[in-house]
Amino acid sequence: MGLLDPLKGFGVTFSTMFKKVVTESYPEVKKVPAPRYHGRHQLNRHPDGLEKCVGCELCAWACPADAIYVEGGDNTEAERYSPGERYGRDYQINYLRCIGCGLCIEACPTRALTMISEYELADDDRQKLIYTKEDLLAPLLPGMEAPPHPMRLGQTEQDYYVKGPDLAREAGQRFTNGPQTNGSQEVQR
């Protein structure tokens, strides 16, 4: 140790004393995250408003932190929530456990689960950090607050969420009457 070491430390402090202070006005001015930022999860809908989640529980199985709980239910003719036979009756994500890895997004076969750019997830109540299906479900078009991430959607979903209700109706027609794959062959409905 040299005798000049304490002076070197004070030199760093002294050099920063006269620099302009940078102040962030965070609550009033929110930063826009990067375009590919993954924040809060969102359960997406089909262009006709039905839910995309089929209750397969693959996202829950893929989650390394065991933060997702899914319970599937069967659709009936009286109550139809998704176009298939099943839907996600109970869906919860515990943000106290979630590590934001995105493995649940990759596991979803229907692109029902995506991550949007909302990043304000802190709260002082533990119960508010368990998001239910009602909290996660994408809003319908009028007054939409947070559309899903456009890079995770197909063309018909982008029409629905980005371009507006008129194109959403067209996209819904294309989606319900469009080609669907069955193994390696394409089947026209």
Automatic annotation (TrEMBL):
Comment on bound cofactor: Binds 2 [4Fe-4S] clusters per subunit.
Family: Belongs to the complex I 23 kDa subunit family.
Catalytic EC class: translocase
Keyword annotations of the record: 4Fe-4S, Cell membrane, Iron, Iron-sulfur, Membrane, Metal-binding, NAD, Quinone, Repeat, Translocase, Ubiquinone
Region of interest: Disordered: 147-189
NCBIfam families: NuoI, PRK05888.1-3
GO annotation, biological process: aerobic respiration
Catalytic activity, reaction form: a quinone + NADH + 5 H(+)(in) = a quinol + NAD(+) + 4 H(+)(out)
Cofactor list: [4Fe-4S] cluster
Binding site for [4Fe-4S] cluster 1: C53, C56, C59, C108
The name this protein goes by in its record: NADH-quinone oxidoreductase subunit I
Biological function: NDH-1 shuttles electrons from NADH, via FMN and iron-sulfur (Fe-S) centers, to quinones in the respiratory chain. The immediate electron acceptor for the enzyme in this species is believed to be ubiquinone. Couples the redox reaction to proton translocation (for every two electrons transferred, four hydrogen ions are translocated across the cytoplasmic membrane), and thus conserves the redox energy in a proton gradient.
HAMAP family: NDH1_NuoI
Sequence positions that bind [4Fe-4S] cluster 2: C63, C98, C101, C104
Residue stretches making up the 4Fe-4S ferredoxin-type domain: 43-73, 89-118
GO cellular component: plasma membrane
Organism from which the protein derives: Longimycelium tulufanense
Assembly, per entry: NDH-1 is composed of 14 different subunits. Subunits NuoA, H, J, K, L, M, N constitute the membrane sector of the complex.
PROSITE patterns with a match to the protein in the record: 4FE4S_FER_1, 4FE4S_FER_2
Membrane topology: Peripheral membrane protein
InterPro entries found in the cross-reference section: 4Fe4S_Fe-S-bd (IPR017896), 4Fe4S_Fe_S_CS (IPR017900), NADH_quinone_OxRdtase_chainI (IPR010226)
Lineage, uppermost ranks: Bacteria, Bacillati, Actinomycetota, Actinomycetes, Pseudonocardiales
GO MF annotations in UniProt: 4 iron, 4 sulfur cluster binding; iron ion binding; NADH dehydrogenase (quinone) (non-electrogenic) activity; quinone binding
Chief location bin: membrane
Pfam families from the UniProt entry: Fer4_7
Enzyme Commission number: 7.1.1.-
